Amino acid sequence: MELLQPPDPDTIARLAPLFEGWTLGVCTASGPLRTVFAWGYQYPRWQAASIAEFLALPIPEDTKLMLVASDDLPDGGVLDLITPLRERFPPEQLRVVLVLEDRIDAHRLRAFSEAGVEGLCREGAVGNGLLLNAILFAARGGRMTDPLFTSRLVNPEAAARAAGAFEALTDRERELLRQLCLGFNSSEIASRLGLRDDTVRRCLSDAYQKIGVRDRSQAIGWSLCHGLLRLQDLQQVYAPLPPSR
What we know:
single chain; alpha/beta; Rossmann fold; 2 domains; six-stranded parallel β-sheet
């Protein structure tokens, strides 16, 4: 997961009215996710690494709590945290945004959706603004679900096949796919990784068959959807050329 960087004071000033008095709280055993506080550092906040620790925090009853949490808590699933908080705070005082593993199954996603969670985000998309957007949507009374999670909820059979394809890839095939998506051809990949050209071509061909793509463009789309590649990686490689003078 990419670490979040705190925005400049002007950005914080523009965002402040959108929070409408919400207090940010984070519950996760993941260190990187706690950096969500980096951009919210001017607001009151609560932080814990377990369900028991978060429930023990002296959060005032009149707080409008914006909870950002993961499902990696050491003393239970995140639903074990959400349920008592729903009992403690009325609906208008509690919003929940979850950051989940990219490969979470449709059954678990459906459980979160049925629990009324306002935001469902992938770990792999935290650094590209999706998490911030989900929090802002929730603060305004809306809901936001990562597009990949939406497709998984709509078509769980296809999602299961895609997850199986990811697991079927070897570590070498994943690395070769990543290098290809970053713009390197077979010869360049072979040189970078100390492999034979024909080995690279064979492995990429096997990987293409496993994930059901035909060319580099489709491989890039697949890799983005499955967390093998980040948008930031592509932005660095395929940055637009400066205008000619």
